[in-house]
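Aim 2 progress update. The chain analyzed this quarter is reproduced below.
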Amino acid sequence: MIAAEEDQGRIATNLRTLLILEAVANSHDPKSPTEINREIGLPKQSIHRLCQTLLDEGFLIRDVSGKKLLAAPRALQMANGLISSTHQSVARHQVLLGLSEATRETVNFAVPETDGMTYLDRVETDWIFRIELPIGSRVPFHCTASGKCFLASLQNRDLDNFLKAINFEKRTANTIMSEGELRKELSAVRRDGFARDNEELFEGMVALAVPVLGQDGRFQAAVAFHGPTQRLQFNTLPDHLDVMRKGAMQLSQLNG
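Predicted structure tokens:
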């Protein structure tokens, strides 16, 4: 039990409420706060207060006795959403597998965060020689194909503000280091509907990315493939454009 392994007084309130919901979810029968607390080990006042909060907010309900607790529709709706999200992740990974098989290279699914693009999912190529960026890796906007896809999707006013604050970190000799040069690159991305990385993040690595759009046409993520220049040539990256766009469309439908 988590509570047995950590200082109880240091368990954050939001974690405490999750532990209560977990205890209710793992039980086949309704449980009283005291029974729940046998698994969690919180102070008596805390368990009753937190259970009452979950009752007030609609995550728990009382059983017919009025003394024990059950999961309420709001908690069940949340659980269903998490299950759906898991199914979506599995389906997304299958799409990435297909793209990796088609391109014979590593494929990434990346989303924008405050300080870069984060890889939420990826499928590694089966080539022995490859460049590895694990799930959770965060890469800059200005020197990656996925990052340029995101920047190109911004409205002009938002892009202006973004470029004023961007950190043009030099990663290689090819890294774009000026606002003017990056704007020129983004104009091409908007025109062509895809972005490329010409050894801008790592020497010897090139990449191509296409946007994944929501049903409203707004940018949600980028799907990209990358590989070493020993196998891939920058000018031939668009040879895989059709299959990448098809994959992006599949991913868009999953996100819808």
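Residues 34 and 206 are 59 Å apart (CA to CA). The chain has a mean pLDDT of 86. These observations will guide the mutagenesis experiments scheduled for the next reporting period.
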